[in-house]
Amino acid sequence: MSSTSTSRVLFEAADGIATLTLNRPDKLNAIDYAMADRLMELLDGIEADRSIGAVILTGAGDRAFSAGGDIREFSGSVAQGPLVAVRDFVRRGQSMTARLEAFPKPIIAAVNGLAFGGGCEITEAAHLAVASDRALFAKPEIRLGMPPTFGGTQRLSRLAGRKRALELLLTGDTFPPARALELGLVNQVVPHGDLMAAARDLARRILRHSPLAAAAIITAATRGLNMSIGEGLQMEAEQFARVVPSRDLREGLDAWMARRPPAFTGC
Predict the structure, then answer these.
(1) 121 catalytically annotated
(2) 41-61, pLDDT tens digit by residue?
(3) Phi-psi category of 264—alpha, beta or left, where left has phi over 0 and alpha has psi -120 to 50?
(4) Confidence (pLDDT) at 6
């Protein structure tokens, strides 16, 4: 899973953490079709790589996490009519954010600058997010005469509540990282120079624990949001049942009773 400087998404891995960098800094890391496809390809490889337990997703350069979809490219799809626009643009974007949201390993968005449109939707879909104090967010699709298309009408309402989400969706106004923190879009705001260190620290705090338990928590929490409480509790029970035969659970229980640190293996 090597990457070059010309790749749409850069890949690095160290200490069990993969760092994916959206890499079109001259275009404010706008998400074109090639970038979305490359991100999905890399996630497939990371999921299969047992040496990687967490992912940090950030943007290249100092100006943007991602300014959203590549307007010039998707306008070409729009010109070909609804069928092509939905197939090439909407389904691709929704598949990308759904993959991030349901990914079995924790994904942390490190928002280093502008997070507009699709960039904001990636932040919404990521399991966790840390924002630079220089970050700036917006849901500007309405300025183009369209709704968000990568899940932004759905996830922001679930994170922030219907009325607060609709204010941002209907005005297209920018909002600062402090507001994103208040809305539940990000977990913390840090000085710009501390962003990646903070994201790595969060990843390391997760990596102390069983990857099987982490995957079960992500699945139960993500799927449960769209279920009744009864269905969600059943999902929780099913995820617990999946880890019962694991060595990790046995190790965690034995370590607790022996008053020693556990040594999880992901088995």
Answers:
(1) yes
(2) 999 999 999 999 999 999 999
(3) beta
(4) 59
